[in-house]
Amino acid sequence: MNSSYNKLVNNLEYLKLKQMLVHLDETIDFMTNNQLSFTETLIKLTDYEIDMKEVNMVKSMVKVGAFPHLKEVKDFDFDFQPTINKQQILDFTTLRFIEQKENIVFLGTSGVGKTHLATAIGIAAAKKRTSTYFIKCNDLILNLKRAKLENRLENRLKHYAKYKLLIIDELCKASHNSSYGKLLIM
């Protein structure tokens, strides 16, 4: 048994199955105490690995999104902004609007929480493994102008088009000077 156990530990290390290795002893104990079958035990052990991969995937999707901050809907003070329909924002986090191929435009003066809410919707999307990218409109325009000058505009457009959710912040600031901000989620 000891040599078999050592071989299993070596195999898990070699395969870089770190979570299975970390939870091996407790899973063996759980199997013994609860008379689990081999299949049930293997499922329990592999679930640890899958859970960690999922956590890492979500972190990666959020990181790729390039959000200005990591604020979520739960962090938004709807009491401070009673004109914002909380149920509608929560509905946006279901991503139904993406399935229905709809765009969202947030209009309002500076400081009402447009960027916070857009970020929260984007993070909700990233956590559901929906490719998401956040960019300020001015940066988007500069990137596209630079790409055109470098004769790679088509590639840059393809880059932005690959995201299921593209959040463009500060739309009005880029188009003209206005204290009335706009945010577009595509």
Any overview of this molecule?
The protein is of the alpha+beta class and about 190 residues long. The chain is built from 10 helices and 4 strands; from the N terminus they run H-H-H-H-H-H-E-H-E-H-H-E-H-E. The chain has helices at about 1-15, 20, 25-35, 40-65, 85-90, 95-100, 115-125, 135-150, 155-160, 170-175, and strands spanning about 105-110, 130-135, 165-170, 180-185. The chain has a 4-stranded mixed β-sheet. It starts with a helix and ends with a strand. About 15% of the residues are buried.
SSE topology sketch:
Blueprint: H1 2-14, H2 18-22, H3 24-34, H4 38-64, H5 86-92, H6 96-99, E1 104-109, H7 114-127, E2 132-136, H8 137-149, H9 153-161, E3 165-169, H10 171-175, E4 180-185
Parallel strand pairs: 2-3
Antiparallel strand pairs: 1-4, 3-4
Instruction: Kindly report the average pLDDT value.
Output: 88
The SSE string, one letter per element, is HHHHHHEHEHHEHE
CA-based gyration radius:
23 Å
SS-based class: alpha+beta
The residue ranges in which pLDDT falls below 50 over 5 or more consecutive positions are 177-182
Counting DSSP E segments of at least 2 residues, the number of strands comes to 4
What share of the residues lie within helices? 55-70%
Distance between the termini: 58 Å
Share of residues in strands: 5-15%
